[in-house]
Amino acid sequence: MLVGAHVSTAGGLVEAHGRAVERGCEAMQVWGQSPRQWRPTRWKEDDIASFLELMDGGPIGAVVIHAVYLINCATTDLEIMRKSVASLVHHMQLGDAIGARGVILHPGSAKGEPHEEALPRVAKIVRAALDESDSCPLLLENTAGAGDTLGRSFEELAELFKLADDPKRLGLCLDSCHLLASGFDITTADKLSDVMDRCDELIGADRVGCVHANDSLAPLGSNRDRHAPPGDGELGARGCAAFLSEPRFEGLPSIFEGPGVEGKAPAKADVDRTKQLRRQGLAARKRRKS
């Protein structure tokens, strides 16, 4: 597992890489454009080239891009649909350009419509974004289940895979906070293993391309997306340690998104704490086997 955090791209990709290194990251996540506006980010060619040089054999082993929350692939509003398609295609092409492990997407919100009617629209936009890009994976993120958000269960995510013709570049990003909030008890290694068995049965655990290691301020089944620093929430140290040492997540980028212990963006203390919890989880698994 490559432990990392979400970092700002203010000043460009090279600056973002520097922030990740300063925090002791092994992986990094960035926005593909400003999360508050539709205008796409145009990283300069020399910035991308320098970033790729830094990534080649450097301390950061993986980069992922998070698509902005403005995108709603389930919308019936034609203007929002047009903007969502354009933005997602832009994110995927950025992913191609920087060799990202994936673009992470929240599937969207049905806005009061039955989910079975909204899911085909999501799959259509997902398919279009994959067709307009070359190699970057698209990773659907499980959601906390608030309101009409889609992707709160493995059954719903599996249906999206099916409707999108289950392309090889479509995968999952599993968020620990969202899993707990949507009703999955992952507070121990054994309980997490059961949840991952279900994921494997319906979708395939090998389709997980990234994980978000966020603790949760809200309790099990609350359907509220409220992040906490690793070990400081409802998952606690034991649950976070189990998530960070799950064998089926080995080799994947693991991203803490914040807010961190300082109440702001992730800091080095948060990355250090995440690494410590991973070591605790690995040690606990080793003791159970002996």
Key features?
two-stranded antiparallel ribbon, alpha/beta, eight-stranded parallel barrel, 290 residues, 14% strand, single chain
- Helix proportion: 40-55%
Number of helices: 9
Average predicted confidence as pLDDT: 96
- Widest β-sheet, arrangement of strands: 1-2-3-4-5-6-7-10
Low-confidence stretches: none
Structural class: alpha/beta
Overall outline: globular
Give a short account of the largest sheet. 8 strands, parallel, barrel
Percentage beta strand? 5-15%
Radius of gyration: 18 Å
What's the gist of this structure?
The protein has 290 residues and is an alpha/beta fold. 41% of the residues lie in helices and 14% in strands.
SSE diagram, text form:
Blueprint: E1 2-6, H1 13-22, E2 27-31, H2 45-55, E3 62-66, H3 78-98, E4 102-105, H4 115-131, E5 138-141, H5 154-163, E6 170-175, H6 176-181, H7 189-202, E7 208-212, E8 215-216, E9 227-228, H8 236-244, E10 253-256, H9 268-289
Parallel strand pairs: 1-2, 1-10, 2-3, 3-4, 4-5, 5-6, 6-7, 7-10
Antiparallel strand pairs: 8-9
Helix pairs in contact: 3-4, 4-5, 8-9
Structure description:
It is globular and about 55 Å long. The relative contact order is 0.14. Helix 4 (115-131) crosses helix 5 (154-163) and helix 8 crosses helix 9 (268-289). The chain is an alpha/beta fold and 290 residues long. It has nine helices and ten strands. An eight-stranded parallel β-barrel has the order 1-2-3-4-5-6-7-10. It has a two-stranded antiparallel ribbon with strand order 8-9. Helix 4 (115-131) links the parallel strand 4 (102-105) and strand 5 (138-141).
